[in-house]
Specification:
Strand content: 15-25%
CATH superfamily of the largest domain: Aminohydrolase, N-terminal nucleophile (Ntn) domain
Number of domains: 2
Bound molecules: iron/sulfur cluster
CATH architecture of the largest domain: 4-Layer Sandwich
Radius of gyration: 22 Å
Distance between the termini: 20 Å
Structural class: alpha+beta
Number of helices: 17
CATH topology of the largest domain: Glutamine Phosphoribosylpyrophosphate, subunit 1, domain 1
Shape: globular
Strand order of the largest sheet: 3-2-4-1-10-9-11
Amino acid sequence: MCGIFGISDNKDSSKLTYVGLFTLQHRGQESAGMAIDSKNGIQYYNGMGLVSEVFSNDMFQSFRGSSAIGHVRYSTTGSSNVNNAQPLFFNSYLGQTAIAHNGNLTNADALRAKLQKQGAIFQTSTDSEVIIHLMAKYHGRTIEDTIADNLHKLEGAYSFLFLAPGKLIGARDPNGIRTLFLGKLGKSYILSSETCAIEVVGGKVVREVEPGEIVVIEKGKIKFKKFAKAKETARCVFEQVYFARPDSVFSGRTVQSARYDIGRLLAKEIKNVKADIVSGVPDSGTAYALGFSEESGLPYKTVFMRNRYTGRSFIQPDQKLREFTAHLKLAPIRDAIKGKTIILIDDSLVRGTTSKKIIGNLKKAGAKKIIMLIGSPPITNSCYYGIDTPTRKELIATKLKIEGIRKFINADALHYLSLENLIKACGYGKDKDFCTACFTGKYPTKVSKLQTKTVNDK
Ligand code: SF4
């Protein structure tokens, strides 16, 4: 998963993009980059690390342009190195263009192989680069025509930003699996993965970019065009469950409200369980626990000291680092724990190893019993759309039934939220069209058998 942010027609575009990326930092911490539309054409700067490490205050003296796009990366395809950092830049018949991509293209390998046979020379190992070669090869009258014509060839999940001299363009996949929002700041338009970044730079959220829609901003004017229509809308439900910032708005309500409701619904699902306190695994579990407390009347207590200076455990790319970071970042608070039966809520259970460690630490610190609640159903399928779930055989719910998982994580009881209630908490009004493939195996787009086999059998 990655974060993208772009702003048009603003003399401070690079600084505002820095702030936007800083706000989206939770979406990717491996690399950051920015491209600007300057007097000397499109310029770009990418580096490994956090936004604050890649960019310095001094560089904004000279790195200035009328519009800018930026990217923070967490790799789900291609390795974690500066070569794969985005925005990617290319110079073709179409002129200079920079692109930033969030999501995963499920047919990227097939497209890459075909393009390579035809002579294309790839510079990176990311799936995102295929759109560059498609655009260079099959170009239309304008860059927006070229983009619209080539997006049809992509399968999977994507939000794209394109920056060309005088133009900022955004596009979202036909199913709307990945997010993209439109905002306004004075005369400038903003495109962002989440609404929180639009608001932090002082802008107003206008609306979601529609699934299958392309947005073209040129000379202060905006045009919209539908380039494709999918049979179903399938927003990734994991944005609300885990990924997005609590102050971002999805489906008309903040992520925080959806997480509160998940907690309330969990409380309704397990009415007669006896415990002393309820708590959550930070960060998302905290909102679940507060919702649970409100519904059940059980007191909420913080049971962990969270070290804020470590990365998010789920998005560290390597398993060893992930386990080490999980251990490092949550230290039990003994007084709150000793002799207590604790209802502990987490957003999801993937491999089970982190929960096992956390429960072990709480018990070592004196907890009497741990009743583990999960704010989403068992994950039984890999995600091919840009969320870093592991291969199927690493998912604990593909190997063990709920009682087996309970024993493995050493909880005294274990309960998962039902899919029905997850959708109820995350949906709003009619807006209930979610991708739930990691729980159900019903993928909203074609996922090739070969890919499923390769990923699952690794
Ligand atoms: Fe999100 Fe799961 Fe669908 Fe992936 S499979 S897009 S994580 S809901």
